[in-house]
Structure formats: C-alpha cells, structure tokens
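Model it.
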Amino acid sequence: MRPGRPSRALAVALAAATLAAAAGAASAVAQPPPVESRLVGTYQMTGQITAAQFVRGEHVGEVVPRTWTFTPLCISGPCAQVRLYRGRRNATDTLILTETSPGHYSGAGTFFAPLRCAGQVVSAGEEVPFQITVTVTATTTAPDGTVLAQQISATYVNKTRLNLTPCVIALGHDAARYSGFEVTS
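Modeled.
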C-alpha cells in the first residue's frame, strides 16, 4: 500500500458506510421526524441500571423490564404535557412530563421506599426524589394521519434520598437508561 492511499478493505468499508448513510437518510424522509409526534399509549421498556449505591436489590448493569403508559393532556397533536404512569418493581409512579423541546420531555417525582431501622422495616422510611427524561426516537402514522411516537428512550436519575426514620443510615442513589416501543396499537 502506498502512503496516503487507503487500502482496498478500507475503501470498501467507506463505500458501504456511505451507502448505509444514504439509505438511512432516504428512510428518514419516508417517516415523519420524531419531533412532530404524539406521545400516547403503553410502552414496553427495557432498562439498564447505570448507578446503584446502597439501593437494596439493584446492581449496576442489571437489566429491568418495565411498562410505562403515557396519557396526553391535550386533545390532539403533540402535547406540551403528558402524564406518565411508570411501573417499578413493586409499585407505580405517576408524574407529569413537560415538553422541553420538540420530542423531548422531562419531569420530576417522588416515591417512598422501605428502610430498615432498629430491626424493623419502616414502609415509608425514605423519600426518593427522581427526574425522568424521555426522547421520541421513532414514529409511525395512524390511519387517520396522526403521527404517533413509536419508540422512545429515557433516563431515570435519583441523586439523593431523604431518611424519614430516627436511625442513622447511609442512603443511596440510583439511575437507569431505558428504551422501549409502543405496544397498544
């Protein structure tokens, strides 16, 4: 091989990548951009825990299946706010997500978790504030022409927890990354 000239294998790989990028651009034209979609329905989510310190039963890298349901708070089209019902291991959280930019939503909530204190489990022993962000990653068009979010990605972040017991306990934090697809159509 001469200096300054790519090998045949590299040239073939570059050509294949260029064709794939062109095909991706062509298919992107065929589908409406995710930013113009209505976020509604039930999504089967797959999460991976990205942080878990002092959180009983959670481990970094663990994969968790979840079900999330979105209810728009407007009559039609993309909404400025949607209600999220987010299933957890043994509970469901409800929170309002606000559109921060087209196709991107964010919201905060709080749930209470059990905590062991003085040999007893206090059912609401710690307060867990969290932040959820959701991004629409793929869309589909309904028969009536409504553009719907078909796939999403999301993050969950809990940075600190509040001890509601009289015991001195090291409190944890956790975070996860999710992706999912709509399953109610």
